[in-house]
Amino acid sequence: MSSQSNAKDVPTGAAALAKGLTLLDTVADAERPLRFAELQELSGLPKPTFARILRTVVAFGLVRLDEARGTYTLGPRFLELSHRVWDTFDLASVATPELSHLSQELGESFALARLEADQVQYMEEYSPPGLGVRVDIGRRVPLHCTAAGKALLAFQEPGFARTLIKRLTLERFTDKTIVGVEELEADLTLTRARGYAVSYEEHLVGVNSVAVAITGQDGTPIGALVGLGPSSRLDESSIHVAGRELIAAARRITGSAGAVAISSRPRPRSLVGETQMDVSMHCVLPWGAQLGESPVWSVEEQRLYWVDILHPSIYRFDPETGHNESCGLNKLISAVMLDENDGLVVASQDGLESLAFGDSRTTTLAHPEEGLRHNRLNDAKVGPGGAIWVGSMSLDASKPSGGLYRMDANLDIECKASGITVSNGLGWSPDNRVFYFVDTVPGLIYAFDYEPGVGKLDNRRVFATIAEAEGRPDGLTVDSEGGVWCAIWDGWCVNRYTVDGKLDRVIELPVPRPTSVAFGGPDLSTLFITSARTRLPAATLAEAPLSGGLFACTPGFTGLPSSRFRHSE
Question: For this structure, is 474 an active site residue?
């Protein structure tokens, strides 16, 4: 809000206070820390007046100046005051306006729920007029088969969550009800990665639901926002839109909705500058993937394999016919690789596993981080010599708990790096002497000296840095000339860097969240680009309806053949 827009509501003599509060709003709402000139421009105040107000809120600790960067953020005193709110926080009264707003905007029933013993209890609800799903206040429903229950389970402390699950009777209510502990835990892992839970007719036939946990000061769920609707209306095409709106509502209620790696807001679409390449970009598959990832080209089959992490599936795309075959899995899967025996290896929530396309049964090969429930594997590739390289990340990207691992032919695992926040794109130079690796959150592409055969890494250095305002680096590939191509999440583009780390070319895309890249086609001259639509605001989806599609172009460079995993018999 601006001081001008609310001037008529400000009591006489409180204009200076109103300007100070407006400044706090501006600092809090900024997507990144702002400098003095930026804040002043947004305030619309004369420089002397603005400077006095800013100095005052800094003096009282409500705003903090980062002297090294010259930027301003909320200060420690503001955070202390906000924490005191929890002592008298009335969740129901704060959530009620959000329920009304959600119901009016989306036309479905919305409710506030809480954990009550080993069940979910509805506390407040709003339903649209006409045909909808009725929610009875005070009613208790199961945890394991409702979106609200799964949201409350997924974000509990792991030990407490395991105790709750052991106490549950996994009763079957419909033929879609989850009744296996392993299947339930797989669904909860997906919920944590996605940020919201879904239930497709698991509790009541004809009723779908979606929910997000509302977290308290310590990150523990204090309730859940849940939307319910007829399965014919709240279907797969609309339930994820509702999930994104619920996340935004939960954040407005408490200031936090479980921060995850894929929750950043895209920057506005704009031209990308003088380095922009003039290429013909085509959406070769308008698939609408939630989180498309890990493209890999099979030279032998002339097919592109790729995955959707949040709608767990492996796909096999034929560019000649446009046909996209699907192999669904019942657990989170983040990457797919080729096996020398014409099979596949995937990175899943259960580790590195082998399978044949079309068969959802997997065989575990090894798990680099077995027992680390807050982590999951992310991007993975087969390196020179046939060993698998895979990175990991925390499910909510809240801490640098990720690592980088190498699995050899004997299925032995070696940790190559640690302290990674969101491990991502991997690639090797044409002579196999340089290894590239992305840590997405700090916006860094690293380069290492690489020793072929043994996979030894040395001399880690920063190869390229992507400014936060330009997006975050995601998946990458290397062309036959040594150029490094990297998808820029929230950047609407793919960047190419020369061997010395300089930005060389930029390919603009019609979607904000490209996720990874791979060269393919008969002569490896086609650049395939996966993308995501998860957590995109409705306004951005309206501007970028092809989000989640598979794109292709011919940028004038050729790629390198994909390696296949070699293992001992």
Answer: yes
